[in-house]
Amino acid sequence: MKFFLSLMILCSFTGNLYASNFWRGSTLSKKEVLAKWGKTEFDIERFKNSKLKPRAEMAFSLLSQKSKYIGKNVTDIFKLFGPKDGYYFSDYYPAYMLSRGKTNKDESWQLVFLLDKNQKISDIIVHQNCCE
Amino acid sequence: MFIRSNAFGDDCVAWFNDSKIELGQNCIIDCASTPVDMSTFTCPSQCDDLCKSKPREKYLFKLTDLYPGLTPQERALASKYPVKMLTAYQLSWKAEKACMSIYGSTETGDESDACRHYIWASYLVNEFDKKMAEDILNAHEQNPNQPQEDKAMDLANNRRGTSVAEDLKRSRTYSDSKIIESFKIDLKKGNLIILRPRSKEEIE
Q1: What single DSSP character describes residue B129?
Q2: Average pLDDT along chain A, 132 residues, taken 10 residues at a time
Q3: Closest CA to A78 of A110, A48, A101
Q4: How many domains does chain B have?
Q5: Is the ipTM of this complex over 0.90?
Q6: Which of A91, A129, A85, A82 is nearest to B194 (CA)?
Q7: Range of B115's domain?
Q8: Which of B64, B80, B96 corresponds to the end of one domain?
Q9: B91 plus B71 within the same structural domain
C-alpha cells in the first residue's frame, strides 16, 4: 500500500514536471524575441563577457542556430558560455539573464539550456524568470 | 560483500567495491554520495543495481531519472523517502516564490540565491528535523558541474538558515514571516555569503 502511495506521488511529481506550463513557465517564441530585442549577430565571446542587454540582443541569432548546441554535454555549455547567472529549477541548468525587472511586477527574462536525462542539451528557450 | 562485474561497467563495479559500502538499508544513499572521477561519473546512476535494491526502492530510483535536475544523492533520498522529498521539493518552490517577491527574479550568486537557500533551509528545519533537513540540503549541493565557490556560498547560507530556524523552533517563535525578517537582518549585518552582489539601486 505504502509503495503504491509513493509511486502515485512520484508519478504526479514527474507528471507535473513534464506538463509544459508547470515545467517551463512563460517563454518567448523566436518571433517575440526578435520583436523585443532585435537581431544582433551572435558572438560567443561577446555573450560570455557581457550582461543583460547585449546578451538579449544576441538571443534571436543564438536561437536561430540552436541546432549547433543541441546534443552537447552540459559541461561543454558551461565551458563555452561561462558560469550561469540565471536560475531555472535547479543548479544543473545553464541559465543566463537577458533582462531584469526591478520589482516582482516587472518582467525578467533568461536564456535557458534545457537538459535531457543524460545531461545533454535538448532545447534552448527564453524563459520568464519572474513575476507575479 | 563484493559484486562481480557482469551487467555493470567494470569501472563502476571497482568504484563500488573500493568504496567498501555495505549492502543493506543505507546502501543506495551511501553509494550515491561516494566521490566520482572522470571514469566513474556515471556510476551513481547505477547505485540501485550495485546495491541490489529491493524492487520498490529500485523502481522509485529509476523513476527519478526522468527529472534531470536532481543530483544522484537527491535521487537516492527520493527513492527512500518519496513523501518527504516531494514535500521538500514543494518547500523549495515556496522559498523561491518568497525570495522572488523580494528581488523580482531568482538568480545565481546574488542576494536572491542566498535568500533561496536560507529560506529553504529554514522551511526544511521547520518541517523535518535538523538531520533530515541537512541530508536534503547537502544532497542538493552534490552537482559536479557547480563551481566550488558557488557551492561554498550555498552551503554557508544553508547553515545560517538552518541555525536561525532551529533557534526559532526551540523558542517556539518560528513563523515564515520571522524567517524572512531574519534573512533581511542577516543580509544587512553581512552574515551571509554573496559572491556577485546586485547593485544598490537594484535592491532598493
Answers
A1: -
A2: 52 46 73 96 94 94 96 94 92 94 83 90 93 66
A3: A48
A4: 2
A5: no
A6: A85
A7: 83-203
A8: B80
A9: no
